[in-house]
Amino acid sequence: MPAPTQAGVDESTLVAQSREGNTSAFAELVRRYEGKIFRLAQHVTQNREDAEDVLQETFMKAYEHLDQFQGNSKFYTWIVRIAVNQALMKLRRKKTGKTVSLDETIDTGEDTVVREIAAWDENPEQRFSREELGEILDSAIQGLEPPYRSVFVLRDIEELSTEETADALGLSIPAVKSRLLRARLQLREKLTRQFKRKGEDAFAYL
Amino acid sequence: MLTCKEFLNELSEYLDESIDAELRAKLEKHITECPNCWVIFDTTRRTIQIYKGMNPYPIPADVESRLMNALEKKMAAKGR
Fold first, then answer.
1. Mind listing the domains of chain B with CATH numbers?
2. For B9-22, what is each residue's pLDDT tens digit?
3. Are A30 and B46 a contacting pair at CB < 8 A?
4. How many other C-beta atoms are found inside a 10 Å radius of the C-beta of residue A123?
């Protein structure tokens, strides 16, 4: 496939060229977003093989339906929505008899989880190698329930807006907000166990 | 005066700066007076920052080449 010459070309031009059948323009779009889509798929499916399927299906579908892409959202947001749908479908298929719906009621209670209240080191990240840090962050996410996980991944990792996240997951805006709060607090809790200042333990329990 | 629980319920929106000035002032007052909530605020903020700063791993070469192969087939099939 030709040429890294497309690297500096802006996205809307690439989309327009792809629509006209320019395959190297589409390949460039793939190269720009494949890493993020693969990461998103891994976070949601928690499984490398499934994530690879999702990655392929996402770009195949995007290519197929390129003419349906409306220029009024970003191309990235559009493919994220495709990827999320594919990933959720995988999850659903796996749990036969037990549908995984992001709408299923989860006990959100009022008990916002806060147990560890300890200040962090100035730069706790530096205590770990990049690989170690990556593992800590990934495994913290893995520990979240799927409904919280998807919201967190879209909002705080892929940096979609609240509205875009609601749209991609088929949730209401208040649902996105409350899940995001809980996801953030749960992750904070998990990371505190790794990052708290040495010798400093909880001030108190709330 | 806000309670800690009220503070926590607004924390996310406070961090996203999507609240009005009046509530914001109340939340700011609360963290200057409540060391526990300040720590929670600070560590939650840093949790989000750490995740935002995380770049995706480069996609494994074998995964990428399978993706590109699949796409090439698709493109060829669609034909021009």
1. 4-78 (1.10.10)
2. 999 999 999 899 99
3. no
4. 9
